[in-house]
Write a structure and sequence with these properties.
The complex is a heterodimer of chains A (about 425) and B (about 375).
Chain A lengths: L1 H13 L19 E9 L6 H20 L3 E3 L2 E11 L4 H14 L5 E3 L3 H14 L3 E3 L12 E3 L8 H10 L8 E6 L2 H17 L3 E7 L7 H10 L4 E6 L4 H11 L8 E5 L4 H7 L1 H4 L3 E4 L8 H14 L7 H20 L4 H8 L3 E4 L2 E5 L5 E10 L5 E10 L14 E4 L6 E5 L1
Parallel strand pairs in A: 1-3, 1-4, 4-5, 5-6, 7-8, 7-9, 9-10, 10-11
Antiparallel strand pairs in A: 2-3, 11-14, 12-13, 13-14, 14-15, 16-17
Helix pairs in contact in A: 2-12, 3-4, 5-6, 12-13
Chain B lengths: L1 H31 L6 H21 L10 H23 L8 H21 L2 H20 L2 H5 L3 H26 L22 E4 L2 E4 H23 L1 H11 L1 H6 L4 H26 L8 H14 L4 H19 L2 H5 L5 H10 L2 H18 L15
Antiparallel strand pairs in B: 1-2
Helix pairs in contact in B: 1-8, 1-11, 1-12, 1-13, 2-3, 2-4, 2-11, 3-5, 3-11, 5-7, 8-9, 8-11, 9-11, 12-13, 13-16
Classes of the chains: A alpha/beta (about 425), B mainly alpha (about 375).
Pfam families (chain A): Peripla_BP_5
InterPro entries (chain A): ABC_urea-bd_UrtA, Peripla_BP_I
Protein name (chain A): Urea-binding protein
Chain lengths: ~425, ~375
């Protein structure tokens, strides 16, 4: 008995959790004149780790590619890129704290990081007060334009607006009523405010909206509401987050809310990665809108997917957020080379106007620190990918949305000191 | 009529998820007075058991023809897995903390964190191996006669059973990881349980679609409740459990082994959490945090129903379920569309999932102001009070 007590005590001690901060960087071989260290800051633990770790993988791959091609050339000297990976731990104040550490202690010239809007909002004051530079790769609700952040994801007019237009005018449910479903936080609520304004402009009707608290997976009341509001089918716009989508799609299928019954769901947060988790059998026939889709049939897109699979395993997929993360590393490299220095202000000036042949097609950095990009509407197919139905031309980003009542008529321009963050057009 | 029926069905559907999740907690919290914050994680283990069972049925050739019935097998497996871990938890942690609720609360919360991290960082194949080793290590001694166990070679025999179980566990881990490659790597990613095709879709009846998974969950809940009631009321061990609940020291004096009663009660409570895990896995995705989402709801049900009363637990979960549907889906607005506008806008304001939750919490708090011991308070003299 005594002995067993001791064993149990030992077991209890052994189960202490140990947190390790991951540090990266490859060995310094090859012919480089010098090295430059950049910061990578995403969640490697906690709820967001699943999504954000794919960005770390992509950014590492982009850096390795640049190094293999000779690194960054500044002022005639070649620099090898090294990186420090910090863990934001899905905790927003940690993102701010680690940003300070990367800027002050490690002295990195640039940080690639963030996913949730909450983490970006927490980091923003740090970068502004230290006049440092953050590259943020996710499609988001916009209504923000910082001189110290560079946004490579889509703004609502580059994702949800063309998608709403498609659903109302050209989808099988064209002309139908809208029902909006989302997780209860800033992105879905802002995005839906814009969608409501747009549907009204188009002459359509939003017959209901509901938000599920984060972590809640009981969607039965929402299903009842959809059935009351849209008895004969219609358009559902879905901005649910992460695994809440699994519960939503499993349960609406059982309740008969399916494409064959006339219900079509347009999704803004479901990319290839999420399709494989939820299961294509639940999503087939519904829609998604992104700038990049793995099924884009161009050499650049195929090369991107192929090198990612080669680097990280054949079962991995690439999706829109990863493509944005990939682009931003290259755009930073180009801007640094054009500026001829790592100095923030010079790089910022050189950045605007940079173009890059991204996997999605050509992108260009605009004066409001966002990218002009192509928008694609796809139907989810049985293989877990998108069948691309429509492709817009290059769409310019609106940092201040022109359909949102609070920002109509405003724009952002950092190249003109008189205009700046928010000016009336 | 159709509306009432649909609302009732939805309420019962939501309520039965709450009930099956809270049933184990009602037994552990209600009968033993132990606040087990790891209850949600025991549910999570049940959900992962379903996932592993599903994969095994998909991969192993001689089980493939029976794939359609894997959910039924998973219920049994989940019960055993969660029950085993629950018994280990009782033996190692909770037994030492009886009578000190605050310490139990902290310790079980710690256990819940350990379990969450465990499924994130240990490959599921080896995790199942470990559970199997524990299962045989804990239960094989029951098959060996007492004379042998307490005889001269008792210690040796015990050591042998543990050695044998450890070997079995390692073998299971190895076999599983080579058979099912998905289980051989640790992953923090949420996984997905896909219901077999006969359980997908719905049954149309009097103009309402009844989702089949919901019907199955209601059935699982019903059977669990009936089995628990039968066990507590009709069997000898059930009677002993009730006796210990009412007066622990008197039962001890009368020759009931209270320690065994504790093990059995906790084992059954934990096993029921596993069954709840199967139900939950059919509705959403399976991840390390899946149980945490339900734990607050479970405590709400147990407290509202009255601690230690099964009838209260049943009524409480169904009333919360029906309230959720009534408020959250805005049923009153559909029934009475031309009510006075201030009332209409108030009800409309609460007719979202987030606000319905706020409203239900508020109603429960108000109810508890008038009946602090819940719907059906425990009667009789309790030795603890």
């Amino acid at each position: 008995m005594k002995l067993s007590k001791r064993i149990f005590a030992g077991l209890a001690t052994a189960s202490l959790a140990v947190t390790v901060t991951a540090c990266g960087g490859s060995d310094s071989s090859g012919n480089f004149d010098d090295t430059v260290t950049v910061g990578i800051l995403h969640s490697l633990s906690g709820t967001m780790a699943i999504s954000e770790s794919t960005l770390v993988d992509t950014e590492k791959m982009a850096i390795e590619e640049i190094n293999a091609a000779g690194g960054v050339t500044v002022d005639g000297k070649s620099y090898k890129i090294e990186y420090i990976v910090e863990d934001g731990a899905s905790d927003w104040p940690t993102f701010a704290e680690k940003s300070k550490k990367l800027i002050d202690q490690d002295g990195v010239p640039v940080v690639f990081g963030g996913w949730t809007s909450a983490s970006r909002k927490a980091m923003l004051p740090v970068y502004e007060s230290k006049d440092a530079f953050l590259y943020y790769p996710i499609q988001y609700e916009a209504q923000e334009c910082s001189n110290n952040i560079f946004y490579t994801g889509a703004t609502p007019n580059q994702q949800s607006e063309p998608a709403t237009d498609f659903m109302y005018k050209r989808s099988p449910a064209a002309g139908g009523d809208f029902f909006l479903v989302g997780s209860d936080y800033v992105f879905p609520r802002t995005s839906n405010t814009i969608t409501k304004a747009q549907v009204k402009q188009l002459g359509g009707k939003v017959v209901g909206e509901d938000y599920l608290p984060l972590g809640n997976t009981e969607v039965a009341p929402i299903i009842s509401k959809i059935k009351v509001a849209l008895p004969d089918g219609g358009i559902i716009v879905n901005t649910l987050n992460g695994d809440q989508n699994v519960a939503f799609f499993k349960q609406i299928q059982d309740a008969g809310i399916t494409p064959s019954n006339g219900y079509y769901v347009m999704n803004y947060s479901i990319a290839e990665e999420e399709i494989s988790t939820i299961g294509p059998e639940f999503l087939e026939g519904h829609y998604g809108a992104w700038n990049y889709m793995m099924s884009i049939d161009t050499p650049a897109s195929k090369k991107f997917a192929k090198s990612f699979k080669k680097r990280w395993g054949s079962d991995r997929v690439v999706a829109d957020p990863q493509e944005s993360a990939y682009n931003m590393v290259y755009l930073w490299k180009q801007a640094v080379e054009d500026a001829g220095t790592f100095d923030d202000n010079a790089v910022r000036e050189a950045l605007v106007g940079q173009t890059f042949d991204a996997p999605q097609g050509p992108v260009e950095v605009m004066a409001n620190h966002h990218l002009s990009q192509t928008v694609r509407i796809g139907e989810i197919n049985a293989e877990g990918g998108f069948t691309i139905l429509e492709e817009t031309g290059v769409v310019e980003p609106q940092a201040w949305n022109q359909k949102h009542p609070s920002s109509k008529g405003y724009a952002c321009d950092w190249t003109d000191p008189k205009k700046g963050e928010k000016y009336r057009m | 009529m159709q509306l009432i029926l649909e609302s009732l069905f939805n309420g019962v559907a939501i309520g039965s998820v709450l009930l099956v999740a809270a049933l184990g907690l009602a037994i552990v919290f209600g009968l033993m007075g132990v606040i087990n914050l790891a209850h949600g994680e025991l549910m999570m283990l049940g959900a992962y058991s379903t996932y592993i069972t599903q994969l095994i049925f998909k991969q192993v050739s001689f089980l493939k023809p029976f794939y359609d019935s894997y959910v039924l097998v998973a219920i049994g497996i989940a019960f055993l897995v969660s029950g085993t871990v629950g018994i280990l938890l009782e033996r190692t942690v909770i037994r030492r903390l009886y009578g000190s609720p605050l310490e139990t609360l902290l310790a079980t919360w710690g256990v819940s964190l350990i379990l969450q991290q465990f499924v994130r960082s240990v490959p599921l194949a080896y995790a199942s191996g470990l559970v199997i080793a524990l299962f045989f290590g804990l239960f094989t001694p029951l098959l060996i006669s007492d004379d042998l166990l307490h005889g001269a070679k008792g210690k040796l025999i015990r050591a042998c059973t543990w050695g044998f179980s450890a070997l079995l566990g390692v073998a299971t881990g190895g076999v599983l990881s080579s058979l099912v490659s998905k289980l051989s790597r640790a992953s923090a990613r949420n996984v997905d349980v896909t219901a077999p095709s006969w359980m997908r879709g719905g049954i149309d009846f009097v103009g309402i679609t009844f989702p089949k998974t919901r019907l199955l969950i209601i059935l699982i809940t019903l059977i669990s409740v009936l089995v628990v009631i039968f066990f507590l009321d009709k069997t000898a061990w059930g009677m002993r459990i009730r006796a210990v609940t009412q007066n622990r020291s008197m039962s001890d004096c009368l020759g009931i082994s209270t320690e065994t009663v504790d093990i059995i009660t906790f084992g059954i409570g934990s096993g029921l959490a596993g069954v709840a895990g199967v139900a939950v896995s059919l509705l959403g995705s399976v991840g390390p945090n899946v149980g945490g989402n339900y734990i607050v709801g479970c405590f709400m049900v147990v407290v509202l129903g009255g601690v230690g009363n099964l009838l209260g637990t049943i009524l409480a979960s169904f009333s919360i379920g029906i309230m959720t549907d009534l408020i959250g889906a805005g049923r009153l607005l559909t029934i009475w569309p031309d009510m006075p506008s201030p009332l209409y806008s108030t009800i409309d304001f609460f007719a979202t999932t987030s606000m319905a939750r706020v409203m239900i919490f508020a109603l429960i708090v108000i109810f508890l102001q008038f009946k602090p011991t819940g719907m059906f308070p425990q009667k009789g003299r309790m030795v603890e009070s």
